[in-house]
Design brief:
single chain; alpha/beta; 7-stranded mixed beta sheet; 11 helices; 19 strands
Length: 376
């Protein structure tokens, strides 16, 4: 069976958009991808990669590149602030023993990997432009672009992220992203020998962690409770980052504190969340990724569910006789899984902010991992 559409426009060249372009192109669909950033950059430090994300990267065809340029491991060690070891949580393989259980990589590195794969499939990538108007005519969608050109498509995919212009244009009543009361700090450091997998040190209002993300580098992160989402002056980032580590006397934490310098790429991001209720599509326009289910990093699954959206959408377009059937099936397969990630991540944040039940926190982590290991 051939795909139920022949020509698709993807608006937004992030992880979800690139993955959708790759997966659709594999199935013979002609894809145009427009990205407003003329340099096609992805900012940020490291990104944690869980077992379900490993599975998605393998499906997309970039697992070997991830293994070569990132880092892989198989577990999490939890510590008290003084370094007392509390627990080791192994990461069971999701795709079998032939693939790593989990890992990490620099966000810009993963973006370059996906961009190269997108180019391999002859996707028509147009940088520095986005849409100006989307006119869904019923049997096709007419799109005008900011460079004055226009095009006719059978399907438009909105994958332009948390602050999506497609979402606000086509679904004006959709919810807006909301601040959750936490922020995350990240820094890049040289990898030290004792960091072979993820480590976390759990304080009362602050959580410190570190994850190896290549043979030579690791990224350190701090989750901090902050009641207000006020602006933080970047010139103060290093000073604030170091101050947050003062209450963690664990020797390895203090060692990492001493390694921080002006080129550690210290970065702060207030954590926001958004879940758009179904449906995520209207006639010939569908939304995927952070555009409809932006989550916090508590389950390390935000990128994962965006990659999965791309895979499932392409599968349904290839499998169903009509676009309406394909989009309905896509929604059915994706809703519960994405809802679980967003809402469970939000609950984990609430427990951390309130100093709540650690058993509930552990149970949510366990149950979420089991759910994410299930087939798409």
């Amino acid at each position: 069976m051939s795909a139920c559409v022949n020509k698709v426009l993807i608006i937004g060249g992030g992880f979800s958009g690139m993955s959708a372009a790759i997966e659709m192109s594999k199935r013979g669909i002609q894809v145009d991808l427009v990205e407003i950033d003329k340099n096609w950059r992805t900012d940020g430090a490291g990104i944690s990669i869980g077992g379900a994300t490993i599975r998605a990267l393998r499906q997309i065809g970039v697992l070997d590149e991830f293994k070569a340029q990132g880092a892989t491991h198989a577990g999490l060690d939890v510590h008290a602030p003084d370094g007392t070891h509390l627990a080791h949580i192994p990461a069971p393989p999701v795709v079998g023993n032939e693939a790593p259980c989990e890992g990490a990589i620099m966000r810009p590195v993963l973006a370059k990997i996906l961009a190269a794969k997108t180019r391999e499939y002859d996707v028509n990538v147009r940088l520095g432009i986005t849409f100006e108007n989307i006119n869904d005519k019923g049997d096709s969608v007419e799109v005008t672009f900011t460079d004055g050109t226009s095009g006719e498509y059978e399907l438009v995919v909105g994958s332009d992220g948390l602050m999506s212009s497609v979402r606000t244009t086509l679904f004006p009543d959709a919810p807006k992203p909301s601040y959750i009361g936490q922020g995350v700090w990240r820094a890049i450091l040289p990898r030290i020998p004792e960091i072979e997998n993820i480590h976390m040190w759990m304080g009362k209002n602050v959580k410190v962690g570190v994850n190896p993300m290549s043979k030579d580098e690791m990224y350190m992160f701090i989750t901090e409770n902050r009641a207000d989402n006020e602006f933080i002056e970047p010139a103060t980032f290093k000073e604030r980052f170091i101050a947050l580590l003062e209450s963690f006397p664990a020797p390895v934490v203090q060692q990492m504190k001493g390694m921080l310098h002006e080129k550690s790429m210290i970065h702060y991001r207030p954590l926001e969340s958004m879940l758009m209720r179904a449906p995520w599509y209207s006639n010939r326009v569908v939304l995927i990724g952070d555009t409809v289910h932006a989550t916090t990093p508590h389950l390390a699954s935000g990128a994962c569910i965006g990659l999965e959206d791309a895979i499932v959408l392409a599968e349904e377009l290839d499998d169903k006789a009509t676009l309406s059937q394909a989009l309905s099936a896509f929604q059915t397969r994706r809703w519960e899984r994405c809802r679980l990630v967003v809402e469970n991540s939000g609950r984990l944040a609430e427990i951390e902010i309130e100093g709540g039940d650690k058993m509930e926190h552990a149970g949510i982590m366990r149950d979420s991992a089991i759910a994410m290991a299930q087939p798409l």
